[in-house]
Amino acid sequence: MSLLVMQPVAAKKGASSVEVYGFAGWILSAVAFALYCLWAFVPEPVLHSIGITYYPTKEWALIIPTLIIFSVLFVYWVYESLNMMSVAEPTALTTIHGELQQTPTPQNASTTAVVRGATTLRG
After folding, report:
1. How far is CA 36 from the centre of its chain?
2. What is the pLDDT of residues 2-49, one digit of tens each?
3. Which end of the chain is less enclosed by CB atoms within 10 A, N or C?
4. H helices of 1-123, where?
5. Closest CA to 94 of 119, 113, 120
6. What angle do CA 106, 111, 116 make, to 5 degrees?
7. In sequence order, which residues have a C-beta less than 8 Å from that of residue 57 and are 6 or more positions away?
8. Which residues have a Cβ under 8 Å from the Cβ of 26 and sit 6 or more positions away?
9. What is the pLDDT of residues 90-120, one digit of tens each?
10. Distance CA 85, CA 19 (A)
11. Could you please report the per-residue DSSP string of 74-98?
């Protein structure tokens, strides 16, 4: 009786470039958010006393997040609109699928509609 012995796999040393870039991006976004919050909430006299005099007006603290939110909502709206334009109408015969479906032939397509094996006359 033989036992199957599994050999340990050598671990890769160091971090991959994706991990390094991801960590650096996470740190940079955290620092940028902290600076944004400081700029938005610290009063202007305090910023002037520190020596920071060149910065945007405080109204941009509301404009930037609002612009981002409405941009995301607009992208969702455009995506949904494009999807609705690219599909057939809900009443179209091409939306009916099933094992009893019969496609109308060119001879009777103008006068009859064949759906699930039942023929009905169009008026």
Report:
1. 25
2. 667 777 766 677 778 899 999 999 999 999 999 999 999 999 999 999
3. N
4. 17-41, 44-50, 60-85
5. 113
6. 80
7. none
8. none
9. 777 777 777 776 666 666 555 555 555 555 5
10. 41
11. HHHHHHHHHHHHTS--TTSGGG--S
Amino acid (1-letter code) at residue 22:
G
Q: Which structure tokens are listed for 104?
A: 């109308």
Question: Hey, what are 75's tokens?
Answer: 């992208």
DSSP β-bridge partners for residue 28: none
CA gyration radius, the chain: 32
**Ramachandran angles phi, psi of 112, nearest 5°:** -130, 155
Give Cα 27 distance to the centre of its chain. 23
**Amino acid identity of 55?**
Y
Q: In angstroms, what CA-CA distances link 103 with 62, 97, 98, 108?
A: 57, 10, 11, 10
Angle at 41 between CA 69 and CA 59, to 5 degrees: 50
Helix axes 17-41, 60-85, angle to 10 degrees: 130
